[in-house]
Amino acid sequence: MREKRKNNLTLKLLSLGLAFLIWLIVVNVSNPDIEMSVTVPIEVRNADVLTSADKTYSLDEKNVRISYKIRTQFRSRVSASDFSAYIDLEDYSITGAVPVYTSVLNGKNNLVGSVSASPMVVHVDTEDIQRKRFDMESGTFSAVTEGGAADGYAAGEIETETDYIYVQGPVSEIGKISRVGIEVRITEATENVSGEATPVFYDANGNIITDIDERVTLSRETIAYTVPIYNIKAMSITADVMGEPAEGYEFNEVECSPSFINVYGPDEILDEYNTINIPEYELDITGASQNITRSVDISEYIPEGLSLAEPGSEITVVARIRRRPVVTVTTESTESVDEGEPAETDENDSTSETPESSESILQSSEAASEQSGPHMTESSPEGERNSESSHGTSGADESPLESRQDSRSER
């Protein structure tokens, strides 16, 4: 029984192999036609018909499917590269419908037949071409940096080989572009950074346009740039004042807050300056009887060629005013000094007597003392007796020195 089943399986396998062999023989002998297809891009010919009229175009279809018939035994010899599909813009009409033409390449014409394209007609949309200039002067062309220089360094303004660029394309696409620029990364840079960058497009919100139409072209594909990297230097701030305060008051000092500011620029300019001075016309104290406070934009007084290293250029300058010390001398030649009261100040300002003011008072007292002559001392009974005794022994014209000399002689 088992041998019978085994024999039946063998017969079945033999039958299957024989049937396949017969099919191959029939196919090779008869070699029937089969229908095949490939997909190819559409080529545009004579495009200058529109571009010469300042027009651009777009197709509603970019690819077509080409169908053809071929003998079975030759089908492996033909591929998509053996076909082409194209349109001729000389056929363009006001309707925009243009027929699709096909051709067989590489000498395969004798292998294929019944070649046809689908679709057989494509629609061509035309639009005016716009050429627009973007430049730095108007702010439509820019060069910016990403990241920051290393500590102690600052990046200067990017220098580019050009300050403008032209963009050309369909009016609808150019209208989407508000600005063109390049972006340069300078993270932790300690020396000048140079290279070339590809321009990018920005919309009205400052976002990069990533899906720009391929018909948009630039007058320059890349832009060369250099980013100068400068040293940072801290400079002190000083200020002058003009005018005289009110009667009875005097100018004391000027305070600047902050008193130092960081700037950067070429080394040859940095080495020339250590101080930034605010001119006197910014701080007029004429007729002042209290402290004068002003906010000054320090960027206006930074030496040419230098720039602020940090944002914020407002400096607070305070001219401190105080009462002038007054010196009074009594008729008994006893001096008394009225140090005066401090000048009225703002709520946030306070003044106190300084060592300089005390010294000034002392000097004034000494001057008054010199003008009034020797001080007189109070007399006591004992002093009067001594005086009388002295006059009695020495006489009216005898000096104390002569009296002492006579006394020594007598002894």
Structure description:
The protein has 411 residues and is an alpha+beta fold. 20% of the residues lie in helices and 38% in strands. The strands form 7 sheets. A 5-stranded mixed beta sheet has the order 6-4-1-3-7, with no helix packed on it.
Net shape = elongated
Specify the oligomeric state: single chain
The proportion of residues forming helix, as a percent range, comes to 10-25%
For the sheet with most strands, the description reads: 5 strands, mixed
* Proportion of beta-strand residues: 35-45%
Sequence stretches where pLDDT stays below 50 over 5 or more residues? 333-411
Query: Which structural class matches the secondary elements?
Result: alpha+beta
Q: Provide the gyration radius in Å.
A: 52 Å
CATH class of the largest domain: Mainly Beta
Sequence of strands across the biggest β-sheet: 6-4-1-3-7
How far apart the termini lie comes to: 179 Å
Mean pLDDT: 81
Overall number of strands: 26
- Counting structural domains, the number is 3
Question: And the CATH topology of the largest domain?
Answer: RNA Polymerase Alpha Subunit, Chain A, domain 2
